[in-house]
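Protocol step 4 of 5: obtain the predicted structure for the target chain.
Materials: sequence only (see below). No template structures provided, no constraints applied. The aim of this step is simply to have a reference model before the mutagenesis design in step 5. Sequence pasted as it appears in the construct record:
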Amino acid sequence: MFFNRSLKLLSKVLTVFFCFTVGGPVEAAVLKIQAIDQQNKPVENAVITATPLFSKVEIVKQTKIIDQINKEYVPRVVIISKGSSVKFPNKDNIRHHVYSFSKAKQFELPLYEGSTAPPVEFNSEGTVTLGCNIHDWMRGYVYISETPFAALTDKKGAAVIQELTEETYRVDFWHPRLKKTLISREIKLQQDSIETVKIRLQLKQLIKKRQKMKTRFGRYSD
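Step 4 output (structure tokens):
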């Protein structure tokens, strides 16, 4: 009797072990990024994308929001997957005119208030620079990615991309003030690994002038 019970217990233990080692979940790899500039200061709002070189990824369409608050685009940089849309609600008490002449997407949302403007769909990979016909200093950016593995650096210049598999990835680095259009590296990740990458980005000098508009623009002015 004791022998039979022992065999049953051993069988259950072996079954659980087999499930976790052969058919069970596999821990994913993690990519950690630390971005600094030429003065060794952390770089915020740098886009990091990881594209697998030998396997396909599934793209999920999204709808994201870029607000207009205090005559600024908030957030300043947004990452979306190709085919996704962005809404541009105006939370100021004046009207804005959102536009872009970028190659990846050209569009205009004529003067409006509130949330009356329709969402804008972005079907081409690339970077879209946003402007406002009324307030010249307003700048925002939409980064359209062909990979779901993407992240934006925080104020400390840090970003994390999770749920990566054992694979070789092309990791792209982009920032609105980057001197080069794009910086890329190939990184091979192992199962269960945590890879840390420190990248130095050469950035252009920040020049931002915020001027009051002339009164002839009436209620559309600063």
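Step 4 remarks: The radius of gyration is 24 Å. Residues 9-26, 213-222 have pLDDT under 50 and may be disordered.
Proceed to step 5.
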